[in-house]
């Protein structure tokens, strides 16, 4: 419960901090393959990256729409979120590792009922330097989705994913 409260506060602070840093949403929504592995050279990730559907069901959609190896805050996954429910949902990551090193992006986003969002999961350049990560081979994380207003309710999703950019 404390973790969810912390994530909610962190998400609100992040939203307020980055409110003026928005970016036009991408319109490339071409794949429906639930696979979570992509093999492309790092130089072409932003130019030729095909959306990667992590979850698409009657309650929510989560897609990785792009990768920016040199994002504003560091290595960045661009993420599309859709809340298809009548409740406000919190989307967050836990147990995140990059190339086997724990590198938590402290990412959590609240999406209002029936709304969509384009967000970014950014990793600290300091974490990459500290762990000697020069290129990303594998990102492993647990995606958690839950009712933002009912901390006692069961998670709607808590599933591990592996992304190989």
Short overview:
This protein is α+β, with helices and mostly antiparallel strands. It has helices at 2-18, 45-48, 125-130, and strands at 52-56, 60-71, 74-83, 89-98, 101-102, 108-111, 116-122, 139-147, 157-163.
Please supply descriptive tags for the structure shown above:
alpha+beta, globular, five-stranded antiparallel sheet, 165 residues
Q: Any overview of this molecule?
A:
By secondary structure, the protein is α+β, with helices and mostly antiparallel strands. Helix content is 16%, strand content 40%. The protein contains three helices and nine strands. It has helices at residues 2-18, 45-48, 125-130; strands spanning 52-56, 60-71, 74-83, 89-98, 101-102, 108-111, 116-122, 139-147, 157-163. Strands 4, 5, 6, 8 and 9 form a five-stranded antiparallel beta sheet that branches. The chain has a four-stranded antiparallel beta sheet with strand order 1-2-3-7, with no helix packed on it. The longest helix is centred in the first third of the chain and has 17 residues, at 2-18. 27% of the residues are buried. Mean pLDDT is 81; it is low at 18-47.
Q: Structural class of the secondary elements?
A: alpha+beta
Largest sheet: 5 strands, antiparallel
Number of helices: 3
Shape: globular
SSE diagram, text form:
Elements: H1 2-18, H2 45-48, E1 52-56, E2 60-71, E3 74-83, E4 89-98, E5 101-102, E6 108-111, E7 116-122, H3 125-130, E8 139-147, E9 157-163
């Amino acid at each position: 419960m404390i973790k969810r409260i912390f994530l909610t506060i962190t998400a609100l602070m992040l939203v307020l901090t980055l409110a003026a840093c928005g970016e036009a949403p991408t319109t490339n929504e071409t794949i429906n393959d639930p696979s979570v592995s992509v093999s492309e050279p790092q130089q072409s990730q932003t130019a030729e990256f095909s959306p990667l559907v992590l979850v698409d069901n009657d309650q929510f959609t989560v897609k990785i729409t792009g990768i920016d190896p040199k994002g504003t805050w560091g290595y960045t996954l661009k993420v599309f979120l859709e809340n298809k429910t009548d409740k406000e949902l919190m989307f967050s990551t836990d147990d995140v590792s990059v190339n086997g090193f724990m590198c938590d992006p402290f990412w959590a986003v609240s999406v209002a009922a029936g709304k969509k969002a384009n967000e970014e999961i950014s990793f600290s350049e300091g974490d990459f330097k500290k762990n000697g990560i020069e290129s990303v081979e594998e990102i492993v994380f647990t995606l958690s989705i839950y009712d933002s207003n009912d901390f006692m309710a069961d998670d709607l999703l808590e599933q591990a994913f592996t992304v190989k950019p």
